[in-house]
Amino acid sequence: MHHLTEILALLMVIGIGAQWIAWRFHIPGIVLLSLTGLLIGPVLGILRPSEALGDAYHPLIKLAVAAILFEGGLSLRFAELKQSAAVVFRLTTIAVVLSLSLTAWVAHNIVGMAWPVALVFGAITVVTGPTVILPLLRQAKLKRRPASFLKWEGIVNDPTGAVLVVVMFDVTVGAHAGHIGETLQHLGAGVGVALLLGGVGGWALGRAFLAGLVPEYLKGAVALAAAIGAYALSNLVLEEAGLIAATVMGVVLGNMNLPSIGEIRRFKEYVAVLLVSGVFLLLTADLDPHILAALDWRSALLIVAVVFLVRPAVVWLSTIGAGMSWQERTLVGWIAPRGVVAAAVAGVFAPLLAEQGLAGAELLLPLVFVLIFTTVVLHGFTLGRLARKLDLSARRHGGLIIAGASAWSNGLAAKLHEADVPVIVADSAWHRLRSARQAGVPVYFGDLLSEHAEHALELGAFGSLLAATNNDAYNALACARFAPELGRQQIFQLAANDSAEPYKPAPELRGRTAMGHDVQFEDLQQRWYQGWGFRESALTETFDAEAFQSALPEGAVAVLVIGPNHAVRLLEADKPLRAEAGERVVWLGPKADQEVPEPGDRAADRPRPLV
Asked: Is the pTM of this model over 0.85?
């Protein structure tokens, strides 16, 4: 296959297919992409991207990396730094210097690299980029603080590491070898231009968006084009400085509180998923198995030292007194996957160092690729497990967010809380949250659509949303807001009032209708004040979902199913109840005074109350 169109189509289909399979079977996507690339490249020989794409190979990778860094910058919010600024500062300054120095020292002493090669290798390993860390964080669902540490470090250190590689090469064997003053002057000019283009360009673009100078449908595309333009212009002054410009532009735009920033982020996230998939396939499929033959036991020892000794030592030393718990330092000290930028930079500078005849230059490229693959596999498979062991995971098997506090929704939250289901009630009126607070239910006081809620809520702890206010438009807005994070399959709202049918939001803007089309806010509130309550029925082999529905009292409403590990599944209107033996159905019905029957009794065909 040599035609460029066919090659790009193949990469897109295989990359997105691998991403979907990884999601479906809960496998780290980056790991599967790397394995797929190795399979279609070195193993089966289906594709050799550098030969097929020719001169376009490296430019495509570089532009893709710039776009990915821009998307990562959009996700960096200064509000996150309120609790993590000291740690982030150290991870992006002190830790960078320590990592470069220690890695260069072990590379020089273990495999005998010449100092120029060792310094370049040390600068390359500084990079822990967003191409890897962001997909891992999306899947692992860490708590906000440790996720913020890793995200900021990865996105900021990606361009920093790339620029350091240029500086290390330039000051040792490049055009300014031995002239530190000229190197620093060149570095200052390049970084200054990148900061100017990224910062001022991002601010000007944001102001243009606010002034309505760019139509809504063009904003995402214009932002991407501006980032690529800033990247290219900055690279004219200093190689790889464009990565700084793209990142800074993303950070500036992401913190200007633009009304359309959510749409821009989603557009860029879709683009980034495509680019990450394609770039990882390009790099791994192009790996020449013969270059690995240069590695021996000392090379393996170097990789072990970098992963298991240097990284933990750097994090623990650089964060002394920074306010991190030992659990956070352990997690951050272990997680440092290298990605696209490390491979791309190594591919550029390894041949240049080899031309100088420096010791160990031939090992640079294979060592970087082995480091990338090792860290992607190790950290991809262990991040979630280690986070749960250290109690730094926000994943709690499908908890429920209830938007809107009322008598009946507080009652539902209280019953779920008693059943040890993660639940939180959100409302902007403090008095409406009173009964939930008295029952010990976690609450969020404020507007669920606010920026504060975005940073205050640990969304990883929840799997579903029930928008349950008496305002159908607000319910639809809440569903639209949380659909990207939780998934549209898990977003529900109450049925609209019949009189509002012609005026309610379009179906594509609404969440799924919970319980039934005739189950509206006023009905639930009225039944609650009539003395109804939430009850629970445990299903068995003999008392299945069909028997449960037959036994429901007249007017009773099945609300949700509590599955294994206390995971919640809300019931959708016009959909059959699907529940297995051992699961529990929570329903709203009249309170019963009779004794609770046991399974197997003649009275067991009656749903049992929640106790």
From this structure: no
